[in-house]
């Protein structure tokens, strides 16, 4: 499993192969430099210490300094390249996931999945970083170093080298077994302490019972028993830990003796020089650090493996899909044909067999009590959701046949919950049309009656809104959203209670702006006010997911009791008090 994480990560990091290759080459150079340190021991010993040659003595210290400096330099760049590759990789994953998130269908984005997505985009990608930056880096650098050291030792005298390389790892393995035992025993000891703590707490709580049933002696006996267990475990820990040291010391002695005997024998017989012997010994000692580093590098890989799996899961989510056709401004209109709808993972029908014609260039006003399904109905037009049954058609063509981008380009929305982004007022309006000039943005703000209040903000159009930014009132938000829609200048408009937060004066102004905006456009407006309803070409009354009546205001008023009720509340309050139906 651990190898597969490294392989998977390497596959993902394929675009950065020049960096990885560079790092690998540098690792090779660094490992050769380590090897040459062990190699140098022989001439030092034989020529300087034994033959007492001054010429070599002069030459060696700078060589040693040079070697180590070079090695430091090379490992520095190796680490740097690896880090570059791993940061590029994790940022690339973040980018891919963020792009995925933006293309996710709304039907798949509950609050819960969103929370998880956020953590995945930010945290999980961070956990993948060490796979390249630590594990792979250490594996290549230290792995090659070990190989190079072993090669040096073997080239000096192969059988002595092999003898040493088998004896010392054996010692290490033995020591590890013991320390594992010690760890397990320490775990038992910790449990025992927990038991003791629990016992004391429990006895204090149950003191009346203990006294009445005169259990003092039994409990004390049990406590003593547990104390003894604790004592035994801790002694065992010491036994294992110190014992392992003892064994390691002993084995090191035995191993050393073996190596020394055979090495000494070879030296005395003149087969190898003392330099050969110490060169091998140095090589062995120098492998200890790389071995330790490699075993430590593996610790972060478990988290990375789980994180990588979660990232892959996100990247495999289905995306919104459109069709091949380019959408166009409606000439006939938008039709809802036998549309029924349930939200995903729910069982209740929110829309039931809706048939509705929204003629091109006209305004359809939808009214109905809260929860009737008005917002849901209009959310089908930009395909935030698709009907569970039935179809939504644009000039007779199913919306699913259109390219999503081209369809949404036709639609302007002022929704019930207006989201302002963490950006300036200007940018929040320009969101409607990023290509607009400054004049156009200001003109849109003026038409939406937003210009005056924006000018009064601390930094005017450059005031930063949203998270940690300036907070606007509901009415101000709505006017910004209207300005956004005006700037987009779309053939289809969806207005969801677009003016419900405005005071009487602002409402009148925005109403005028909206009327200019709506002229000649296909508009669906969820209406809560008398004037909108009266001016609409068609009025649709909804209740509990169904259309209960449609027609002109007067006709519907004459025959629909629900509309009469709503109408009176419009007239009385100017704004509707949502009638809660359950
Ligand atoms: N994302 C969602 N997931 C599940 N159910 C939802 C979701 N959004 C709305 N509903 C449910 O669908 C029904 C219709 O909601 P909708 O928002 O369309 O009503 P509305 O007519 O716009 O009401 P209001 O006038 O209060 O805005 C309600 O019962 C609501 O609880
Ligand atoms: Mg609504």
From TrEMBL:
Instruction: Give the residue spans that cross the bilayer.
Output: 59-81, 135-154, 160-178, 246-265
Query: What does the UniProt entry say about where the protein is found?
Result: Cell membrane
Q: What keywords tag this UniProt record? A: ATP-binding, Membrane, Nucleotide-binding, Transmembrane, Transmembrane helix
Q: What is its main location?
A: membrane
Q: Which GO terms describe its molecular function?
A: ABC-type oligopeptide transporter activity; ATP binding; ATP hydrolysis activity
User: Which ranges carry the ABC transmembrane type-1 domain?
Assistant: 21-303
ABC transporter domain residues are 334-569
May I have one GO cellular component term? plasma membrane
Topology with respect to the bilayer: Multi-pass membrane protein
**Gene3D superfamilies in the cross-refs:** ABC transporter type 1, transmembrane domain, P-loop containing nucleotide triphosphate hydrolases
Note one Pfam family from the annotation. ABC_membrane
- Name of the protein in its database record: ABC transporter ATP-binding protein
From what organism does this protein derive? Thermodesulfatator atlanticus
Instruction: Provide the organism lineage as a comma list.
Output: Bacteria, Pseudomonadati, Thermodesulfobacteriota, Thermodesulfobacteria, Thermodesulfobacteriales
